[in-house]
């Protein structure tokens, strides 16, 4: 059986969908200094990686959410992944806007969703969990039976894990921050001594002491 956790980590690093730069941190909108940049949209432009990702998401749904009746992508990053994964599984799909349209029927949920339908949300990235929880809540309000989330990558941050637990939202990711950091060290993307620094960032992004180690 394919180990998608390792395969996805190697793939994301190879196309720089996940890019580690501990010596020259990126700055988040919040002002936090981060050693990692993540743009999983790049997987859509890399056919072989895209195949691995969508097959991995399909396997995740089959394994962890076998009762799934429909997939719902997050807007906008999860839409394409939901569509391709739904195609592989032979399931209907739709997506959830970040807010209601300001015209027409003013939909927030696009695609036909039947109340009580067992739904899996497809997300590309989970950090603090806010956006995916908002998506799940919108689906629940519309009557969906949300089984959980299948995502490509999660940081595994304490705040995100706590928020998901409080909202009673299950998430299963193809790969995570710890796996990617360890693979990056093994393959020479970063120095092995950087691993502990990056894990320290993961544990508390607001504490910049990791940059001084």
Walk me through the structure.
The protein has 213 residues and is an alpha/beta fold. Helix content is 38%, strand content 22%. It contains seven helices and ten strands. Strands 7-6-5-8-9-10 form a six-stranded mixed sheet, sandwiched between helices. A two-stranded antiparallel sheet has the order 1-4. It has a two-stranded antiparallel ribbon with strand order 2-3. The longest helix is centred in the N-terminal third of the chain and has 18 residues. The termini are far apart. The mean pLDDT is 93.
Q: In a nutshell, what does this entry contain?
A:
The protein has 213 residues and is of the alpha/beta class. The protein is built from seven helices and ten strands.
From the structure above, extract its key features.
two-stranded antiparallel ribbon; 213 residues; alpha/beta
Describe the secondary structure blueprint for this structure.
Layout: H1 4-14, E1 18-20, E2 26-27, E3 33-34, E4 36-38, H2 47-64, E5 70-74, H3 79-89, E6 93-96, E7 109-110, E8 118-126, H4 130-141, E9 145-154, H5 158-166, E10 171-176, H6 177-186, H7 194-203
Parallel strand pairs: 5-6, 5-8, 8-9, 9-10
Antiparallel strand pairs: 1-4, 2-3, 6-7
Helix pairs in contact: 1-2, 1-6, 2-3, 6-7
Biggest sheet record: 6 strands, mixed
Sequence of secondary-structure elements: HEEEEHEHEEEHEHEHH
What is the alpha-carbon Rg in Å? 17 Å
Helix/strand class: alpha/beta
Unreliable parts: none
User: Helical residue percent?
Assistant: 25-40%
Q: Report the sheet-strand fraction.
A: 15-25%
Main sheet strand line-up = 7-6-5-8-9-10
* N/C terminus separation: 39 Å
């Amino acid at each position: 059986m394919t180990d998608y956790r390792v395969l996805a980590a190697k793939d994301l690093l190879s196309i720089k969908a996940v890019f580690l730069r501990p010596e020259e941190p990126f700055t988040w909108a919040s002002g936090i200094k981060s050693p990692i940049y993540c743009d999983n949209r790049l997987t859509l432009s890399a056919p072989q990686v895209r195949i691995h990702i969508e097959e991995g998401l399909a396997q995740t749904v089959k394994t962890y959410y076998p009762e799934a009746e429909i997939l719902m992508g997050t807007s906008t990053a999860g839409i394409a992944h939901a569509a391709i994964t739904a195609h592989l599984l032979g399931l209907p799909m739709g997506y959830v806007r970040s807010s209601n349209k300001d015209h027409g029927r003013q939909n927030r949920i696009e695609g036909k969703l039947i109340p009580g339908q067992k739904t899996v949300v497809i997300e590309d990235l989970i950090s603090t969990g806010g956006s995916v929880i908002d998506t799940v809540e919108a689906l629940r309000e519309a009557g969906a039976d949300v089984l959980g989330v299948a995502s490509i990558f999660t940081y595994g941050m304490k705040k995100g894990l706590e928020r998901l637990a409080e909202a009673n939202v299950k998430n299963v990711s193809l790969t995570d921050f710890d796996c990617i950091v360890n693979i990056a060290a093994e393959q020479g993307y970063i120095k092995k001594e950087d691993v502990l620094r990056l894990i320290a960032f993961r544990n508390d992004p607001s504490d910049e002491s990791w940059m001084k180690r």
